[in-house]
Design goal:
By secondary structure, the protein is mainly alpha-helical. Helices cover 74% and strands 3% of the residues. The protein has 6 helices and 2 strands, in the order H-E-E-H-H-H-H-H. The protein has a two-stranded antiparallel sheet with strand order 1-2. A hairpin with an 8-residue loop joins strand 1 and strand 2. The N and C termini lie far apart (44 Å).
């Protein structure tokens, strides 16, 4: 993995994401206008235009790829498959979540709760998972709402994954220090 995430490859991936995002925006512009997405799907709340995606999605892609690269460079173990599983799995998850949201189903609530439950056991707060989640939701929710969801989920996933481990570690130290 150390050779896969070179500067050139990160730049290439970010360029591909940028071109796809700009193509998506151009298509929207010439076919009825670029949509505006509202918080909680309610137009009484402030809206976010998809035009923001032309800037935010490439920047976030570059930043998250940088974080993945930095983590990979500091670890001895090859994690190529784990990074790909996390990225692709979250693209698929976000696509399924988006589909069920559009259909008006109750499934997205259950998927979100299941996702939080899984985060107790797997490190879903990692950059590749967040990038997959954001890119998987951009088509349906625009660019800003997935970024906000991902920021919230980053906080929740970090707490749910790390806090129990900190508590267990503290309890073990307390147990061994008292004996």
């Amino acid at each position: 993995m150390k050779t896969i995430l070179t500067f050139k490859n990160r730049l290439l991936f970010t360029g591909v994401v940028s071109i796809l995002m700009w193509t998506f925006l151009a298509w929207d512009h010439f076919h009825g206008g670029v949509p505006v997405h509202y918080i909680l799907h309610n137009d009484a709340y402030p809206g976010f235009s998809n035009w923001w995606g032309a800037i935010t999605i490439p920047l976030v892609t570059w930043g998250l790829l940088y974080l993945v690269n930095r983590r990979v460079q500091t670890q001895e173990k090859d994690q190529t498959s784990l990074i790909l599983y996390g990225f692709i799995g979250h693209i698929i998850y976000a696509g399924i979540l988006s589909y069920f949201f559009i259909t008006g189903s109750d499934v997205p609530g259950y998927l979100a709760l299941g996702h939080i439950a899984i985060s107790f056991f797997l490190p879903l707060y990692r950059a590749e998972c967040l990038l997959g989640y954001i890119l998987g939701m951009v088509y349906i929710f625009g660019s800003i709402l997935p970024l906000l969801f991902a920021a919230f989920l980053f906080i929740v996933f970090t707490i749910t994954y790390k806090l129990p481990r900190i508590i267990i570690s503290f309890a073990k130290k307390k147990k061994y220090s008292s004996t």
